[in-house]
Amino acid sequence: MSRYPDYLSPGSTPPHIHKSRPRREASGVFSLFQPAQVQQFKEAFQLIDHDKDGWVTESDLKEIFASLGISPTKKLLDDLLSERPGTKSSHPQASSPSTADRGINFTMFLTMMSERLFEFDPESELREAFECFDEGDTGTVKVDEMRKWMSEVGERMGPQEIDKFLKSSFTDRQGNFNYREWVKVLRVNDDGDAQAPS
Predict the structure, then answer these.
(1) pTM to 2 decimal places
(2) Where are the alpha helices (DSSP H) in the chain?
(3) Cβ-proximal residues to 147 (8 Å cutoff; 6+ apart), any chain
(4) Model confidence over 55-92: pLDDT tens digits?
């Protein structure tokens, strides 16, 4: 008599063992956005996905461009579809994927959107911009100095916009704006604009 079960002996087939399927982990890109933002991106994706198959393909892009009165070139469509995550190749002409292989699903779409959104003013760039005005490396800048720069340099802001920005919980009673804390909590709001909570 063998000390092993019969199904482990040579030539026998093991009984059907019911194993639970491993739990699928959600893509990390979903954690970058609030649920309401993910929903807005989902709605945008569904508008582009004309055939509602869960994939944005060349034909979907042609339809969306046509609805906007634009006649896209083959190169433009190829460029858009090659921007999807996981298609960066050192030899773009090495293989020409079929149209079916060139679609973009929602996770890829969300990844592309996050790459575009987070290219603009990431936390370190914003912090560096404010540090130019923070001579004592205190993490704060004088509100009066910021008011001057915001109204006179670059994309000038009006007095009401400046007041709204500077009269937040990030400005203390001594007239210092705590930019380090502001940069930490800066998020993309539902309208797609940068906004800090007040």
Answers:
(1) 0.45
(2) 35-48, 58-67, 74-82, 106-119, 123-131, 143-152, 159-166, 179-185
(3) 162, 166
(4) 999 999 999 888 888 889 999 998 888 887 765 544 34
CB neighbours of residue 102 within 10 Å? 19
Collect all residues with Cβ–Cβ distance below 8 Å to 97 and sequence separation of at least 6: none
Distance CA 188, CA 28 (A): 17
Q: Six-digit token pair at 74?
A: 């083959």
Instruction: Decide if 109 contacts 154 (C-beta within 8 A).
Output: no
113 backbone dihedrals φ, ψ, rounded to 5°:
-65, -40
Residues near 160 by beta carbon (within 8 Å), at least 6 away in sequence: none
Q: How many CB atoms lie within 10 A of CB 56?
A: 25
Residue with tokens 């892009």: 61
Backbone angles phi, psi at 25, to 5 degrees: -85, 140
